[in-house]
Task: inverse folding
Protein backbone atom coordinates (compact mmCIF):
# COMPACT_ATOMS: atom_id res chain seq x y z
CA UNK A 1 0.00 0.00 0.00
CA UNK A 2 2.78 2.48 0.81
CA UNK A 3 4.44 1.74 -2.55
CA UNK A 4 1.24 2.88 -4.26
CA UNK A 5 1.27 6.18 -2.35
CA UNK A 6 4.80 7.05 -3.50
CA UNK A 7 4.51 5.64 -7.01
CA UNK A 8 3.91 8.98 -8.76
CA UNK A 9 5.70 11.28 -6.31
CA UNK A 10 9.13 12.79 -6.76
CA UNK A 11 11.62 12.08 -3.97
CA UNK A 12 12.87 14.94 -1.82
CA UNK A 13 16.13 13.11 -1.00
CA UNK A 14 17.82 9.93 -2.23
CA UNK A 15 20.71 7.82 -1.00
CA UNK A 16 22.49 5.30 -3.17
CA UNK A 17 25.02 2.83 -1.85
CA UNK A 18 26.83 0.64 -4.35
CA UNK A 19 29.17 -2.17 -3.35
CA UNK A 20 31.41 -4.54 -5.27
CA UNK A 21 34.06 -7.13 -4.56
CA UNK A 22 36.90 -8.13 -6.87
CA UNK A 23 39.36 -10.99 -6.56
CA UNK A 24 42.91 -10.18 -5.51
CA UNK A 25 44.99 -13.33 -5.72
CA UNK A 26 43.78 -16.75 -4.62
CA UNK A 27 42.55 -15.83 -1.15
CA UNK A 28 42.06 -12.05 -0.95
CA UNK A 29 39.44 -9.67 -2.24
CA UNK A 30 39.15 -5.90 -2.55
CA UNK A 31 35.76 -4.49 -1.62
CA UNK A 32 34.79 -1.06 -2.92
CA UNK A 33 31.79 0.97 -1.84
CA UNK A 34 30.31 4.33 -2.75
CA UNK A 35 27.66 6.39 -1.02
CA UNK A 36 25.86 9.27 -2.71
CA UNK A 37 23.22 11.51 -1.11
CA UNK A 38 21.19 13.76 -3.39
CA UNK A 39 19.00 16.62 -2.22
CA UNK A 40 16.18 16.76 -4.78
CA UNK A 41 14.73 20.19 -3.99
CA UNK A 42 15.92 23.60 -2.78
CA UNK A 43 16.13 24.05 1.00
CA UNK A 44 17.12 26.48 3.71
CA UNK A 45 19.93 24.84 5.72
CA UNK A 46 20.46 24.80 9.49
CA UNK A 47 22.27 28.17 9.30
CA UNK A 48 19.46 29.81 7.31
CA UNK A 49 21.25 29.69 3.95
CA UNK A 50 19.49 28.79 0.69
CA UNK A 51 20.80 25.56 -0.85
CA UNK A 52 19.89 24.30 -4.34
CA UNK A 53 19.19 20.67 -5.22
CA UNK A 54 22.34 18.62 -5.73
CA UNK A 55 24.81 16.14 -4.33
CA UNK A 56 25.30 16.52 -0.58
CA UNK A 57 27.64 13.59 0.05
CA UNK A 58 29.63 11.46 -2.37
CA UNK A 59 32.28 9.26 -0.83
CA UNK A 60 34.01 5.94 -1.36
CA UNK A 61 35.79 3.35 0.73
CA UNK A 62 38.06 0.54 -0.48
CA UNK A 63 39.11 -2.37 1.73
CA UNK A 64 41.64 -5.14 1.16
CA UNK A 65 40.38 -8.32 2.83
CA UNK A 66 42.37 -11.41 3.83
CA UNK A 67 41.12 -14.70 5.31
CA UNK A 68 41.79 -16.82 8.39
CA UNK A 69 40.37 -14.91 10.12
CA UNK A 70 38.47 -12.83 7.58
CA UNK A 71 39.80 -9.33 8.27
CA UNK A 72 40.58 -5.89 6.87
CA UNK A 73 44.29 -5.54 6.09
CA UNK A 74 44.19 -2.19 4.28
CA UNK A 75 41.57 0.58 4.27
CA UNK A 76 41.24 3.74 2.21
CA UNK A 77 38.48 6.29 1.76
CA UNK A 78 37.84 9.42 -0.25
CA UNK A 79 35.26 12.20 -0.04
CA UNK A 80 34.53 13.62 -3.48
CA UNK A 81 31.56 15.83 -2.50
CA UNK A 82 31.06 17.09 1.05
CA UNK A 83 28.81 19.58 2.80
CA UNK A 84 31.57 21.08 5.02
CA UNK A 85 35.24 21.72 4.33
CA UNK A 86 36.26 19.92 7.54
CA UNK A 87 34.64 16.58 6.55
CA UNK A 88 37.87 15.03 5.16
CA UNK A 89 39.46 15.38 8.62
CA UNK A 90 37.44 12.28 9.57
CA UNK A 91 39.21 10.10 7.00
CA UNK A 92 41.86 9.35 9.64
CA UNK A 93 39.32 6.97 11.25
CA UNK A 94 39.87 4.45 8.43
CA UNK A 95 43.30 3.49 9.80
CA UNK A 96 41.56 2.35 13.00
CA UNK A 97 39.75 -0.48 11.18
CA UNK A 98 42.89 -2.10 9.78
CA UNK A 99 43.15 -5.52 11.44
CA UNK A 100 39.43 -5.63 12.29
CA UNK A 101 37.87 -9.08 11.91
CA UNK A 102 34.65 -9.46 9.97
CA UNK A 103 32.48 -11.42 12.38
CA UNK A 104 29.36 -10.91 14.49
CA UNK A 105 29.58 -7.46 16.08
CA UNK A 106 31.30 -5.92 13.01
CA UNK A 107 28.72 -3.12 12.67
CA UNK A 108 29.04 -2.12 16.32
CA UNK A 109 32.82 -2.01 16.03
CA UNK A 110 32.63 0.11 12.88
CA UNK A 111 30.19 2.47 14.61
CA UNK A 112 32.62 3.00 17.49
CA UNK A 113 35.73 3.32 15.29
CA UNK A 114 34.44 5.26 12.27
CA UNK A 115 31.33 7.03 13.58
CA UNK A 116 30.60 9.04 16.71
CA UNK A 117 31.87 12.50 17.68
CA UNK A 118 35.33 11.97 16.17
CA UNK A 119 34.16 10.26 12.98
CA UNK A 120 31.65 10.59 10.15
CA UNK A 121 28.13 9.15 10.28
CA UNK A 122 28.01 8.79 6.49
CA UNK A 123 31.37 7.04 6.15
CA UNK A 124 30.33 4.82 9.06
CA UNK A 125 27.10 3.90 7.25
CA UNK A 126 29.05 3.01 4.10
CA UNK A 127 31.64 0.84 5.85
CA UNK A 128 28.97 -0.96 7.90
CA UNK A 129 27.13 -1.80 4.67
CA UNK A 130 30.39 -3.15 3.25
CA UNK A 131 30.51 -5.87 5.93
CA UNK A 132 27.94 -7.98 4.12
CA UNK A 133 29.67 -7.46 0.77
CA UNK A 134 32.95 -8.59 2.34
CA UNK A 135 31.38 -11.89 3.39
CA UNK A 136 29.41 -12.46 0.18
CA UNK A 137 32.27 -11.38 -2.08
CA UNK A 138 34.83 -13.54 -0.32
CA UNK A 139 32.52 -16.56 -0.25
CA UNK A 140 31.65 -16.12 -3.95
CA UNK A 141 35.35 -15.98 -4.88
CA UNK A 142 36.20 -19.04 -2.79
CA UNK A 143 33.19 -21.00 -4.07
CA UNK A 144 34.13 -20.16 -7.65
CA UNK A 145 37.69 -21.38 -7.15
CA UNK A 146 36.44 -24.68 -5.67
CA UNK A 147 33.43 -25.19 -7.93
CA UNK A 148 34.65 -28.70 -8.83
CA UNK A 149 34.82 -29.67 -5.13
CA UNK A 150 31.26 -29.19 -3.74
CA UNK A 151 32.11 -29.87 -0.09
CA UNK A 152 35.02 -27.42 -0.12
CA UNK A 153 33.03 -24.84 -2.11
CA UNK A 154 30.07 -25.07 0.25
CA UNK A 155 31.98 -24.24 3.40
CA UNK A 156 35.15 -22.24 2.89
CA UNK A 157 36.44 -20.74 6.13
CA UNK A 158 33.43 -22.03 8.10
CA UNK A 159 30.95 -20.09 5.96
CA UNK A 160 28.11 -21.18 8.22
CA UNK A 161 29.65 -19.11 11.03
CA UNK A 162 28.81 -15.97 9.06
CA UNK A 163 25.30 -17.11 8.17
CA UNK A 164 23.90 -18.84 11.26
CA UNK A 165 21.42 -16.60 13.08
CA UNK A 166 21.91 -13.84 10.49
CA UNK A 167 18.23 -14.14 9.56
CA UNK A 168 15.24 -16.45 10.02
CA UNK A 169 16.22 -18.64 7.06
CA UNK A 170 19.62 -19.30 8.66
CA UNK A 171 18.37 -19.91 12.19
CA UNK A 172 20.68 -22.12 14.31
CA UNK A 173 19.44 -25.71 14.20
CA UNK A 174 16.92 -24.73 11.52
CA UNK A 175 16.44 -26.73 8.31
CA UNK A 176 19.18 -24.95 6.33
CA UNK A 177 21.72 -25.27 9.15
CA UNK A 178 20.94 -29.00 9.50
CA UNK A 179 21.35 -29.49 5.73
CA UNK A 180 24.81 -27.96 5.85
CA UNK A 181 25.84 -30.05 8.85
CA UNK A 182 24.67 -33.22 7.11
CA UNK A 183 26.49 -32.34 3.90
CA UNK A 184 29.72 -31.60 5.79
CA UNK A 185 29.40 -34.73 7.93
CA UNK A 186 27.81 -37.39 5.69
CA UNK A 187 28.50 -40.13 8.27
CA UNK A 188 26.05 -38.37 10.61
CA UNK A 189 23.20 -38.35 8.07
CA UNK A 190 20.01 -40.02 9.15
CA UNK A 191 18.59 -42.80 6.99
Result:
Amino acid sequence: MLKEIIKNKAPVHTRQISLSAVAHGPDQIIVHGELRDERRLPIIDILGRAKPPGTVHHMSATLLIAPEPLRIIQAEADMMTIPMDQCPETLDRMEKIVGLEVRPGFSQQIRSLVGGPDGCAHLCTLVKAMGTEIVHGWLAWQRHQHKDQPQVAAAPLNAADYLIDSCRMWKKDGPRHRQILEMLNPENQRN
